[in-house]
Amino acid sequence: MPTTNRSARAFAMSFRRICGLTVAVVCQLGLLLTPSALRAQTATVSILHSFAGTTDSQAPNAALIQAGDGNLYGTTLGNLFTDYGSLFQITPSGTLTQLYSFSGGSDSATPFASLIQGSDGGLYGTTYGNLISGTDGSVFKLPFGGTTLDTLFTFTGDANGGFPFAGLVEGSDGNYYGTTSGGGIGGTLFRVTPAGVLTTLVSFSGSGLTGSFLTSPPVEFTDGNFYGTTNSGGVSNFGVFYQLTPAGTYSALYSFTGTGDGASPAGTPVAGSDGNFYGATGSNASVTTPDMNGTIYRMTPGGVLTTLHTFNGTTDGAGPVGLIMGSDGNLYGAAGSGGTNGNGTLFEVTTTGTFTVLYSFGSTATDGNIPAALLQASDGNFYGTTSAGGANAAGTVFKLSPATALPAPVQITPSASMIPLGDPVTLNWQVLNAFSNTMRYCYASVQTTASGPGAWTGLQTGTYNATTHIYSGSATITPTASGPYTYGLTCGGVESGTATVTVGGAQTLVVTTSNLPQARVDVAYSTALVASGGVPPYTWSLTVGSLPAGLTLNASSGVISGKPTAAGMANFTVQVKDSDPTPATATASLGMTVVQPLVITTMSLPAVRVGSTYSQTLTATGGTPPYIWKQSSGNLPAGLQLSSAGVISGTVTAAGPATFAVSVSDSAAPVAQSVTGNLSIVAEPLIVPTGAVTLSPSTISIGQTTTVTLNLSAPAGSPVATGNVQFVANGANFGSPVPVVNGSASLTSPAFNATGSYEITANYTGDPNYMALNFPPAILAVTTAPALAIQATPSVLSATSGASATTSIAVYNANGAAIKFACSGLPVNAVCNFGPLSSSGTTSLQIAAYTTASLSRPELRGRSIALNLAWLLPGMLALGAFTRKRRRIVLLGIAALLLVATTSLSGCSGGSPATADSPKGTSSVVVTATVGSQTASTLITLTVQ
C-alpha cells in the first residue's frame, strides 16, 4: 500500500468503526482475509478507474451521483497530509477528470460524504475538516462546469456543530439539510440556505434518548417531515431512528438495542413504495451474535421495526453501509467487509427480505475492497467506489452489471428525436423509485453547444401513481435554434436521465472514417469508426467482407478491437445506422493492413579501435519499410553518427564504452509503428606495442654492413601487428620502409664508410590496431679495419728445374672477404698455383719451376722408371694372397701394365719435349693478396737447382 494512502485509510476505517463497521475494519486489517476462490455470482464488476494517489488523489469513501450531463461525480479523502481530498468527474466509460483539490486551508479538507446536484445545477457537499490544522469542516458549492469552489459555511465546532461526516439533501423549500458528527456534545442537525446562512435545528446531547453522532443526512418523506438515524445514543446507546418536522420538532421514534434489531444504523433511510422506510445497521464491537455483522430493517413512519436480514459476516458480508432503491423496486447496497474473500460484498434484497449476494470482492490488487454505497445510473447499471484496493491500493471506481438488465430509474422520452426548427417537442419523463419528496424533487438541465434549447429549466412537477408507483410528468418546449440538445432530469440530486433531440433536421448520415490504422500481429488493437449526421446513438455492422482474424466490431461503439492473429490485407464494408424512428444508414468501404510487429533485429554491435573508420547498418523487421532511425538517448562513441537510414559511421576519436538507445519508425499510415532498443559500442584504445632495435653485428669496420631488426610484441590475445618500419641512422632514413611480417621487420644496412657511433632507430607507422611509435636506438660502432697481411711459411724454397716447391700462405685481416692472389719475380718458365682458402684463412702455394706445354701430368716429369714402378709395388706384394693359378693371371696383367707404363714414361723423358724448365738460380718471388682496396705482399726466396 502506498504510504500516501495509509493515513486516509486509517482515518476512514476509524469512522466506519464508530459507525458500526467493526467487521469491515477487522477484515481490512487482514484478520479475516481468506484466499480468493472461484465463485458463482449474479452480476459482474468492471473496474473503471484505479486511483494512483498522485494527480487523481486517493481513497474515495462515498457513493457517486449522476448529474444532468450523464456523467458521474464523487469525492476522495486524500491522505490527510499532502492530499486533502478532491472532487472528480468520471464518465460511465471510465475517463476521470479531477475538478478540484482541497488545500487544507480556508477551503477545509477531507470530503467524506457524497455530493448532490442542486436545483441550480451546482455540486453541493461537505468537508469533515482538517484534524491537523484544526478546522472543523465546511459546506461548499462547486458551480457546474466551474473550477472555483465557494465555501458557503465554515463550522467552528461549538453550538453550530462540527465535523460533518454526512452529505446534504435538498428540501422542497430549496434549502439544504445535513448533520454534523460533532459540535455541541453529540452533533447537530442543520439547515443551510444556498447563500450559506446556517441554522442549527437540533443539538444532540450525546446521551439519553435523543441520539448522537449523526453520519447521514435525513430524507424528506411524502408527509413533509424529515426522517433519519443517529449512529449512537438512544436507550441502549446503539442509535435511534428519528423524525424532524418542518417546524423543527425532533422525535426519537425508535432506539436500536443490538438484540436482533441491529445497532449503529448506517446511511439515509430509503422510502419504499409501500410507505415504509428501509435501512441498514452496521453494528459494532459491543454487539454480540447475531447482530454483530449488521442487519437490513424495515421501519414504519411510526417507528415499528422489522428485521429483514441479519448478516453472517462470511458469505453475505458484514457491516452494510447503506441502501438505495433500484428501478425494479428492490433494495441494493454494499457491505464493507466479509463475503467469500473477506473484502466486502454487493447485494440485493427485496422488501420482503429475500437476500442475494451479487458480487464478492476478491484480490485487493484487482477489484478493490471496502465498498461504499451504490448508485443506479441511466444505463440501468450500478456504480460505486472502494476506498482501498485496486491496481494501486488507493481505491477504485467500479460498475456492477446485473445478469438481467434493469431499466433506468429516471427516463425521458421525447415525442420526436428530430424536429424542424420552430416545431415543439414534448419531453415525457418518469421516475421509477420516487417514493419520497426528496426523490420527487426533480429539476431540468440542458447540455448543448447550440443556443435556444427552449424552456426546459427549474423544478419539474409530476404526478405519483399509487398503482404503478411511478412518478411522471411532461413538458412541451419549442427550441429556438437549430442544433442537438441533450435534456436532463435530475432527481434527489443524485440520479438523472437524459434524452437528445436534434432541431432543424439532422445532417446526412455519413461514415467519416476513411482509413484505418495499421494493425500488428499479436498486438492489442483498438480504433473507433466515426460517423456524423443522423440521430445518435449509432449502430454499426459489417455488410461485406470480414475483419482480419482476431478482430471484432462493437455494434454500439463502433470500436474495432482485438489482437490480429495473421499478417495480410482485409477489405470490408461497414454500415452505420442511426436512432431515428425511420433509421438512416450509410456505408463505407475500408481496408486494413495487418503486419508483423516492428522489431529491431540488431542485438549487438562490434567494437572499434580509436582512429579507425566504422560503418555498421542497423536492421529491423516487420512493419512497413522504409524505416526511419533516430538516436533517442545516450551517446555514440565520439566521432560516430547515426543516419536516418540506420547507418552508424565515422572515425572514432576517443576510447571507452558507449551505451545509447535507438528508435526506428516504419512508414505505416496514418499511424506509424515505433520501437526502441538499447545498444552499445566499445571504442577500444590503440595497442601500444613494445619492442627493441637489434643489430647483427653491432660493431663493424668501415665498408661493412649490419642487419637491423625490429621485433614487436603486444599483450596476449592481441591481433597480429601489420604496418611498415622505416629504419633511420643518425636521423637519416636508409633503405625503403620494410613491412612488418609476423611482428618483425629486418633490413641489411648499406656499407658504412666512416668510423664512429651511429644511432639506429626504427619508426613504426602503426596500423588500425596498433599505435605508431618511434623505438629507441641501438648503437652501431664503425671502426677502422686492420691492415691486410700475408705470410709464407716457409719463405725460402728450393726446387729442381722442371719440378715444384710448396709453401703455406696465411692471410690476416681479410675478414672473410674475397681474396685475389698473384705472384711476381718468378724465374723464367715458373708459375704459381694457389690452392683453396681454408676457414682459418690459409692457402697452399705451389711454385712450379717449369711451364706445361701439353696435357702430360707434370708431377711425373723427371722421375726414373724405377720410381714410377714403385707405386705398382704394393699391388705386386699383394699377389701372395692369390692362388697359384690366379697369381699367374694377375702377374701377366702387371707385366702388361709395366710395359705400358715404361713406354709412356720413356715417351715423357725422351722424344719431343712438352715442357720448358726454369733455369737454375735464385729469385725473389713477391706474393700479393688483394682484398678490396687493400693489398698485402710477402717475399719468398726461390732457388732453382
UniProtKB/TrEMBL annotation:
Domain Bacterial Ig-like: residue ranges: 693-780
Superkingdom of the source species: Bacteria
Transmembrane parts of this sequence: 865-882, 889-907
Cytoplasm found in the keyword field: no
GO function term, MF aspect, one: calcium ion binding
One Pfam family linked to the record: Big_3_5
Keywords: Membrane, Transmembrane, Transmembrane helix
Stretch forming the signal peptide: none
GO CC, alphabetical: membrane
InterPro entries noted in UniProt: Big_3_5, Cadherin-like_sf, Gloeo/Verruco_rpt, Ig-like_fold
Stated name of the protein: Putative repeat protein (TIGR03803 family)
